[in-house]
Amino acid sequence: MVFLSFLAFICLLPLAFSAPGQLFERLGAPSELDRRAGTFFSNWREGGGNFQCNNLGGGTYTTNWSGQGGFVCGLGYNPGGNRVIRYNGTYTPTGPGYLALYGWTRNPLIEYYVIESYDVLAPGEPWTLKGNFTFEEGTYVLYTSTRVNKPSIEGTRTFQQYWSVRTEKRVGGTISAQKHFDAWRSVGLNFGYHDYQILATEGFTNGAQVSSGSSRISVDV
Predict the structure, then answer these.
(1) What is the mean pLDDT of residues 14-34?
(2) What is the rounded CA–CA span in Å between residue 3 and residue 72?
(3) pTM for the full predicted model
(4) CA 145, 150, 155: angle at the middle one, nearest 5?
(5) Considering only CA atoms, which of 5, 73, 71 is closest in space to residue 34?
(6) pLDDT digits over 62-120, tens only?
(7) So which residues are the catalytic ones?
(8) Where are the alpha helices (DSSP H) in the chain?
(9) 188: which strand partners?
């Protein structure tokens, strides 16, 4: 989501094992700033499975995963923002998990996903449908959910999650983050100021469903 050549930060990182996108403070699984590429690299894993994530530099990372547990890995920016993000690559999942633009805002504290592809959608909390929107990049369905007294980038908090789920899966293209932020605001879902934002591969165990697969993703940074 290898670390010795970079400046590593002790960060709060995505915890996908018990619920997608949940955060947990953990030493030994830092996010880091790849100074060669000017990108923010996030790598987290938990459980007894095989989770491999490699930052190849130049805006490209690879993953291979299988077994019980979960991981989140990706490249992006810190802080995030209203970017137009271009990416391409390969993504071959089985089971629960996402290929998504993933990030956080503060004040209010919001965790958000723009889901581009997946095998099994398995949200940790019930989703509430908020509508859909279509623009030149495609059609997305909007949802929200609430996590109560869960770990976050600000410690144990209650916070909302915002979701844009693409109706036609893809692995590569352009994500205009501002368009999604505007769509969420149009249905009453407000934002604060941005923390980190990554183009992430995520896999996790959900009950009897176990995730496996691989990806190779390049982000135009």
Answers:
(1) 35
(2) 16
(3) 0.83
(4) 125
(5) 5
(6) 999 999 988 989 999 999 999 999 999 999 999 999 999 999 999 999 999 999 999 99
(7) 111, 202
(8) 177-186
(9) none
Taking a C-beta distance cutoff of 8 angstroms, is the pair 105, 195 a contact? yes
- Answer whether CATH 3.40.50.1970 is correct for domain 7-219: no
- Degrees to nearest 5, angle at CA 199 with 71 and 51: 20
Question: Per-residue b/e over 114-138, b at no fewer than 16 CB within 10 Å?
Answer: bbbbbbeebbbbebeebeebeeebb
- Delimit the domains of the chain by residue range: 7-219
Contacts of 97 (CB under 8 A, 6+ apart): 16, 20, 118, 119, 120, 201, 202, 203, 204, 211, 213
If you search the block for the tokens 């019930």, which residue do you land on? Answer: 126
* Among the listed residues 200, 176, 173, 213, the one whose alpha carbon sits nearest the alpha carbon of residue 42: 200
